[in-house]
Amino acid sequence: VGLSNSRYLTAYLDPEDVPDHGPFVKMMQLVLTTFFYQGCLELGKVLTEPLGTDFEAFPRHAYLFWMWQEAEAFHSTTEEPTFAAQEALRCTAMVKQIKHETSNSNSVGKSSSGVLTL
Protein backbone atom coordinates (compact mmCIF):
# COMPACT_ATOMS: atom_id res chain seq x y z
CA VAL A 1 0.00 0.00 0.00
CA GLY A 2 1.07 3.58 -0.34
CA LEU A 3 3.78 4.96 -2.52
CA SER A 4 5.60 1.67 -3.08
CA ASN A 5 2.58 0.14 -4.85
CA SER A 6 1.90 3.21 -6.94
CA ARG A 7 1.90 2.54 -10.66
CA TYR A 8 3.68 5.84 -11.22
CA LEU A 9 6.55 4.85 -8.97
CA THR A 10 6.69 1.42 -10.61
CA ALA A 11 6.77 3.02 -14.06
CA TYR A 12 9.57 5.33 -12.91
CA LEU A 13 11.66 2.55 -11.42
CA ASP A 14 11.22 0.10 -14.33
CA PRO A 15 9.94 1.76 -17.52
CA GLU A 16 10.07 -1.57 -19.39
CA ASP A 17 7.49 -3.11 -17.02
CA VAL A 18 4.33 -2.09 -18.90
CA PRO A 19 1.36 -4.46 -18.61
CA ASP A 20 0.20 -5.75 -21.98
CA HIS A 21 -3.60 -5.91 -22.03
CA GLY A 22 -3.84 -7.35 -25.49
CA PRO A 23 -5.84 -6.31 -28.53
CA PHE A 24 -9.25 -7.31 -27.14
CA VAL A 25 -9.01 -4.95 -24.15
CA LYS A 26 -7.75 -2.12 -26.35
CA MET A 27 -10.63 -2.67 -28.78
CA MET A 28 -13.17 -2.65 -25.93
CA GLN A 29 -11.69 0.60 -24.61
CA LEU A 30 -11.99 2.13 -28.05
CA VAL A 31 -15.61 1.01 -28.55
CA LEU A 32 -16.85 1.87 -25.04
CA THR A 33 -15.18 5.27 -25.03
CA THR A 34 -16.74 6.07 -28.41
CA PHE A 35 -20.23 4.97 -27.31
CA PHE A 36 -19.96 6.95 -24.07
CA TYR A 37 -18.84 10.08 -25.94
CA GLN A 38 -21.64 9.75 -28.51
CA GLY A 39 -24.16 9.25 -25.71
CA CYS A 40 -22.99 12.44 -24.02
CA LEU A 41 -23.26 14.34 -27.32
CA GLU A 42 -26.80 13.04 -27.88
CA LEU A 43 -27.82 14.00 -24.36
CA GLY A 44 -26.41 17.49 -24.88
CA LYS A 45 -28.33 17.83 -28.16
CA VAL A 46 -31.62 16.85 -26.51
CA LEU A 47 -31.06 19.20 -23.58
CA THR A 48 -30.26 22.20 -25.81
CA GLU A 49 -33.52 21.82 -27.78
CA PRO A 50 -36.13 20.16 -25.56
CA LEU A 51 -39.07 21.04 -27.84
CA GLY A 52 -37.61 19.45 -30.98
CA THR A 53 -39.37 17.10 -33.37
CA ASP A 54 -37.33 14.00 -32.56
CA PHE A 55 -38.78 11.01 -30.74
CA GLU A 56 -36.87 11.70 -27.53
CA ALA A 57 -37.88 15.38 -27.44
CA PHE A 58 -40.34 16.83 -24.95
CA PRO A 59 -43.94 15.97 -26.01
CA ARG A 60 -44.99 19.47 -27.03
CA HIS A 61 -48.49 18.57 -28.25
CA ALA A 62 -49.31 16.55 -25.14
CA TYR A 63 -48.15 19.46 -22.97
CA LEU A 64 -50.22 21.98 -24.96
CA PHE A 65 -53.30 19.75 -24.74
CA TRP A 66 -52.83 19.37 -20.97
CA MET A 67 -52.42 23.15 -20.55
CA TRP A 68 -55.54 23.75 -22.65
CA GLN A 69 -57.50 21.37 -20.39
CA GLU A 70 -56.20 23.18 -17.29
CA ALA A 71 -57.17 26.58 -18.69
CA GLU A 72 -60.65 25.29 -19.53
CA ALA A 73 -61.03 23.93 -16.00
CA PHE A 74 -60.01 27.27 -14.45
CA HIS A 75 -62.35 29.14 -16.78
CA SER A 76 -65.30 26.88 -15.99
CA THR A 77 -64.81 27.30 -12.24
CA THR A 78 -65.19 31.08 -12.53
CA GLU A 79 -68.37 30.99 -14.60
CA GLU A 80 -70.54 30.68 -11.49
CA PRO A 81 -69.17 32.01 -8.21
CA THR A 82 -69.09 29.60 -5.31
CA PHE A 83 -71.18 30.10 -2.18
CA ALA A 84 -68.15 31.45 -0.29
CA ALA A 85 -67.45 33.97 -3.06
CA GLN A 86 -71.09 35.10 -3.05
CA GLU A 87 -70.96 35.58 0.74
CA ALA A 88 -67.76 37.60 0.44
CA LEU A 89 -69.36 39.83 -2.20
CA ARG A 90 -72.41 40.38 0.00
CA CYS A 91 -70.26 41.29 3.01
CA THR A 92 -68.18 43.69 0.90
CA ALA A 93 -71.31 45.36 -0.45
CA MET A 94 -72.70 45.76 3.09
CA VAL A 95 -69.44 47.32 4.34
CA LYS A 96 -69.39 49.74 1.39
CA GLN A 97 -73.01 50.67 2.03
CA ILE A 98 -72.33 51.33 5.73
CA LYS A 99 -69.30 53.48 4.89
CA HIS A 100 -71.32 55.42 2.33
CA GLU A 101 -74.15 56.05 4.81
CA THR A 102 -71.80 57.19 7.55
CA SER A 103 -69.91 59.48 5.19
CA ASN A 104 -73.19 61.11 4.04
CA SER A 105 -74.35 61.71 7.60
CA ASN A 106 -71.15 63.57 8.52
CA SER A 107 -70.72 66.97 6.99
CA VAL A 108 -67.44 68.14 5.60
CA GLY A 109 -66.08 70.99 7.61
CA LYS A 110 -63.07 72.28 9.43
CA SER A 111 -62.28 71.29 12.96
CA SER A 112 -60.81 73.66 15.51
CA SER A 113 -57.28 72.63 14.45
CA GLY A 114 -57.95 73.62 10.86
CA VAL A 115 -57.88 70.06 9.47
CA LEU A 116 -60.65 68.87 7.19
CA THR A 117 -62.82 66.19 8.73
CA LEU A 118 -65.25 63.83 7.09
Question: Could you give the topology of this structure?
Answer:
Layout: H1 7-13, H2 22-48, H3 60-77, H4 83-105, E1 109-110, E2 116-117
Antiparallel strand pairs: 1-2
Summarize the entry for a quick read.
The protein is mainly α and 118 residues long. It has helices at residues 7-13, 22-48, 60-77, 83-105, and strands at residues 109-110, 116-117. Strands 1-2 form a two-stranded antiparallel sheet.
Description:
The protein is mainly alpha-helical. Helix content is 64%, strand content 3%. It is built from 4 helices and 2 strands. The chain has helices at residues 7-13, 22-48, 60-77, 83-105; strands at residues 109-110, 116-117. A two-stranded antiparallel sheet has the order 1-2. The protein starts with 6 loop residues before the first helix and ends with a strand. The mean pLDDT is 78.
